TrEMBL record:
Protein name: Phospholipase/carboxylesterase/thioesterase domain-containing protein
Domain of life of the native organism: Bacteria
InterPro entries registered for this protein in UniProt: AB_hydrolase_fold, Plant_Biomass_Hydrol_Est, PLipase/COase/thioEstase
Signal sequence, renumbered to the chain: 1-29
Ranges of residues in domain Phospholipase/carboxylesterase/thioesterase: 136-207
UniProt-listed Pfam families: Abhydrolase_2 (PF02230)
Keywords: Hydrolase, Signal
Provenance organism: Paralimibaculum aggregatum
PANTHER family found in the cross-reference section: FERULOYL ESTERASE (PTHR43037:SF5), UNNAMED PRODUCT-RELATED (PTHR43037)
Length: 285
C-alpha cells in the first residue's frame, strides 16, 4: 500500500522546481512559450497545460485532474471544460497523469493497493507551486477538481495534502479500497455522483484490470471519513433540485464542510456542475 510521506516530499520537489530548475525570472528556457494551448509546462516527472483568463492579476485557479486514459493536453482543448472557469476569471491548470499498469493509458497514482512509479500527490504539489510562481496565481484561491479516476485523485490529495487547495470538488470518483481511516485535516469538499453510474457505482464494486484486482470504495463510506475528520457527524441539510438531483450539506462542522449531490444520470460531469462548484467555492468562508 502506498505510503504518503507528503509534506516532506512536496516541499523537496517544490524547492527543486523553484530553485534548481528555473532560470532567470523563474522560467526555464525550454518553457518560454509555456501557457500557449499546445505548449506544456514541464517539470520533474511530468507536465501540465494552462489556460489563463483575460486581464486578471493574481487570478484564482482550478487544477483539473482528467479521467483515465485522458491527458492534460486533450482536456485543455475542450471548451466545455475550460471556458466555464475562464469566464469566471479562473486560470485552468490541466496536469497529465502517468502511464498506468500497461502503460497504454494515462492514469493517476490513486491509493488503491497498486503503486504506480510517480508519487502523484507530490507531483501535484509541484504543479501547484510552479503554476503559482510562473503565472502569478492567488495561492489562497486554489480549487482542485477532477472527474472519475481524477476525482478519486482529488479525494486522495484532499486527504493527504489538504494544504494544497482552498476547496476540493470531485465528480464520479472517490476513495478506493483499502480505504483510509483518517485524513490529515478537515477540508471543504463538493462531491457529485450519478445514481445510475455503472462505471464507478455509488456503492462501490470489485473489478479486475490488466490482471490486477481492485475495489472501488463505497462513496458513503468515504463521506463518513470526511464527516469524522470535519467533526460534523450530525444530520445534513437536505435539498432537491428541479433536475431530480438530491443534495446533502454538512455545513455545521467544527471545520471544513461537505456537499454531496446525487444526480439521476450516469458516469459523467453533470451539466451546470462547473458553475455550481464555483458558486460553492466562492461562498466558502
Amino acid at each position: 500500500m502506498r505510503q504518503f510521506a507528503m509534506r516532506g516530499a512536496i516541499a523537496t520537489l517544490c524547492m527543486a522546481i523553484m530553485l534548481g530548475a528555473a532560470g532567470p525570472g523563474g522560467l526555464r528556457a525550454a518553457d518560454a512559450v509555456c501557457g500557449e494551448p499546445d505548449e506544456p509546462c514541464t517539470l520533474a516527472g511530468g507536465e501540465y497545460y494552462v489556460a489563463l483568463p483575460e486581464a486578471a492579476a493574481a487570478p484564482p485557479a482550478v487544477i483539473w485532474l482528467h479521467g483515465f486514459g485522458r491527458s492534460g493536453r486533450a482536456m485543455i482543448r475542450k471548451p466545455d471544460y475550460v471556458e466555464p472557469f475562464r469566464r469566471r476569471g479562473y486560470a485552468v491548470i490541466m496536469p497529465s497523469g502517468q502511464p498506468g499498469i500497461s502503460a497504454k493509458n494515462l492514469d493517476w497514482g490513486v491509493a488503491d493497493g497498486y503503486d504506480l512509479p510517480r508519487d502523484d500527490i507530490a507531483f501535484l504539489g509541484a504543479v501547484r507551486a510552479d503554476a503559482v510562481a510562473r503565472f502569478g496565481l492567488d495561492p489562497a484561491r486554489i480549487l482542485i477538481a477532477g472527474f472519475s479516476r481524477g476525482g478519486s485523485m482529488v479525494w486522495d490529495v484532499a486527504c493527504h495534502a489538504p494544504e494544497l487547495a482552498r476547496g476540493f470538488a470531485a465528480a464520479a470518483g472517490a476513495f478506493w479500497e483499502p480505504m483510509t481511516a483518517g485524513c490529515a485535516a478537515p477540508v471543504h469538499l463538493f462531491h457529485v455522483h450519478g445514481f445510475k453510474d455503472r462505471m464507478v457505482p455509488f456503492e462501490g464494486r470489485a473489478l479486475t484490470w490488466e490482471g490486477v484486482d481492485f475495489a472501488q470504495g463505497n462513496v458513503m463510506k468515504g463521506v463518513d471519513v470526511w464527516r469524522r475528520e470535519n467533526a460534523c457527524m450530525g444530520s445534513a441539510e437536505n435539498s432537491f433540485g428541479d433536475d431530480g438531483s438530491m443534495q446533502k450539506d454538512w455545513a455545521k462542522c467544527a471545520a471544513g464542510s461537505i456537499r454531496l449531490r446525487l444526480t439521476r444520470g450516469g458516469h459523467g460531469v453533470p451539466e451546470g456542475w462547473r458553475e455550481a462548484v464555483l458558486d460553492w467555492f466562492e461562498a466558502l468562508d
